[in-house]
Amino acid sequence: MQTIKPELLKSFLQENPVVVDVRPPEQYSPGDLEGALHIPLRDIQQGHHNLPKDRPLLLICERGVMSELAGLYLEAAGYQQVYHLEGGLQKLRKVAEGL
């Protein structure tokens, strides 16, 4: 699994990854990252998803912990193009404020 720094997110999104928000339903907000699929971590852990193996996957969550864990599960399931957002949406918001 590779880590994407928030400062590099915009350029990484040009590679057309599937963006997956792994937060639980009570934390999820559709407007946090436009176009993201919502697949909670527990569903990824249980294999309840149909994510493509032929495209990069960018996993996001609030602080970067759940997305990293989801990435480990996906790698164990044979996914090779797995990325997670360093520091999660929290760090992305801080970086965006600094611009």
TrEMBL record:
Residues 13-97 form the Rhodanese domain. It comes from the Bacteria. SUPFAM superfamilies: Rhodanese/Cell cycle control phosphatase. This is Rhodanese domain protein. It comes from Meiothermus ruber (strain ATCC 35948 / DSM 1279 / VKM B-1258 / 21).
